[in-house]
Every structure is written in C-alpha cells, then in structure tokens.
Amino acid sequence: MFQQYRALFHGCTVITTLLVLVPCLGEDVLTGAEAEFNHVEKQAESNYKTHEDLQNKSWEEMRKRVLRKWSDGAIPEVKDYVEYFDQDSTRVKVDYENGIVSVEAIIDAKEQVPTSAVAAAKIKSALSTVISQDSKSTTAVLTRDEITASTTSQQDLVASLIQSVESSGGEKGDDGQERRLYRVSFKLVPNYVKRRAAKFRPTVEVWAKKYNLDPAFVLAIMRTESAFNPRARSSVGAIGLMQIMPQYAGLEVMQTVTTNAVQPTAEFLYEPQKNIMIGTTYLQLLRDQYFAAMKDEEKQRYLITASYNWGPHRIKKAIAKGRLSTRVPASDVFSKIQEIAPAETKEYLRKVTQYTADFRAKD
Asked: What distances in angstroms separate CA 149 from CA 143, 165, 189, one per listed residue?
C-alpha cells in the first residue's frame, strides 16, 4: 500500500532538491546524491510505517466494535461510505463507485413487538439523517436529486423508500446474540456521477484557473481517488475528495501557501473546498517542481497523473535512468508508463485519462 500514498510525501526538501539536480550532476556526485536520496527515502518509509500502524490499529478497533453485532464488520472505505447509528443497530452503506445504497437494521430476535415496524422506523431515521434536500450540498452523504428525478419532498421520498423494507434473514455477531436483519436497497439515478461532479465544479474551476490546470483533469483525479465521496478516508488516513495525507502532501502544501509548517487537520480536509484547494495546489507543485520543463501538456499530464499515485521521485528516476523517455509522442509516454509502472498505477492512469475525456465532453 505504500506506493499509493508515498506519492503524497514531499515534506522533505532534500528529495525535491536532489531530484532536480540529479540529471545535471557528474557521476561521482550523482552516486552521492542517490545515496543521500535513498537514506531520506528509507526515513520517509519508516515514518509512513509508524503512521500506517496507528491507522490500522484504529481501523481494527472499529471493526472489532461492529463485529459484535454484524457478521461482516463493514467499515468505511475510500469509495464506500459506511455509518452506524443507534448503538450500531442500523447502518447506511453507499457505494459511490457503482451508485448503490443499502440501509440495514438489526432487531433482537427475542423482541416481541412487530420487528418489521421497528426496523422500518430505524431505517427511516437513518435515511432522514443522510439525505439532504439541498441539491447543491457538497458535504451531504446523499442529496434528494441523486435518488430520484422527481420533485418529491425529502419526507415523501423517505416514506416511499421504506415501503420496500424486506427481511433478509438472520444476523449474528461475535456477541452470539441472534438478530433479525432488515434491508432497503436502491440505485442512484443514472447520471448521479455528473450530478456529484457538478457540486464540486465551481470550486474546482476557481483553483484550476488560479493554477492553469484543466478542470476536467482535476475532476478526473477526484473521480478516480474518491468517486466524489467527501467523507472518504482510506485505511492509512488519506482524507477527502482528493485523498490527501495530512502529514505529507497536506503539510507540504500548507508550507508552500502559508510558509509555516502547519499540518491540516482531518476536519479541515473533510471540507470539500479546502480539500480541493490542497489537492489542486499539490497538482501544481508536481507540475512546477518536477515537470516544468515538459512543455507538451498531454505528456505532462501523464507524468503528473502517474506521480500522484506512484510518486514523482519514481517517475523522475525512471526518466533519469532512461527507462522512460519524454522525447517521444505522448501516446508512447502513456504506453511506457503502462509498461514500467505497477498494476495499480497502470489502472490509475487509464482511469484518469478516460475520466478527463468524459468530463471534457460534458463541458
């Protein structure tokens, strides 16, 4: 997992300085610079490992808690929103990648009252909490227009959804208690991706204009990173729409913007406008610190995209060692990155490139 998030580690200026100077240095100096770079890189890996261990511990504690009642122990993932309510007896799951929503409630099997009615009430309460009537909300889990194309009020929409509550058998967690499971599932409207993107586009356009970035490219990064889930948080602590690591990319951007070593908090990065500000500034840093000499915008975009996922130091090293030539057509740069990069980065580059074209077509 390190390669995915180490791309966001640039707090140490030694790395930037070395990578800019390496192509211009003599062989002896190059050897010394590479040794120093490797030392810094190992230190970064060590710091990351400590952070990852802490995040894994937090994730495991959460999973252990929900496993007491739920057999699958579902917890939030980057593109899957999961939230528990009412002492973990109700949960909402939103698969933003595929546009599927599931709301589930579990009731003590020994309960004497009509359990379907109790479950419906629990599901209604959870749905009312996560659905916003404001179609322009950038922080809501769901908005009414993402669920239905009609002008139905939120109250009527929730009422219609809970009519399809169905019993889904039993549920037994680690506490050994038997429970009845009830579920409501539905799909978001067919154009939900376009609707979600539209909520964030005004902010994207402000920062894209400031940094001379293609708004469609920024939206494509967001689509690939989080599927427009503003509450996205990875198991290693990357946060928000553009999956920012607070102590790495977040810290570097804040140092650049404020000249102070200020690490943004999780609450700061969960705010879409601030997350987009950090993410677009980071894209600008990748471009201007690592690939400013590349004047072909298409080639430059491929290099930035791969760097966002794999790490700019790896891309720069591949160029310096002749494994990746930038003196070839843009299509060949794309193909070469696909050849030398790990599978995750190959797919990442493919998706961002496709989504960029999609968002341009919608402009």
From this structure: 11, 21, 7
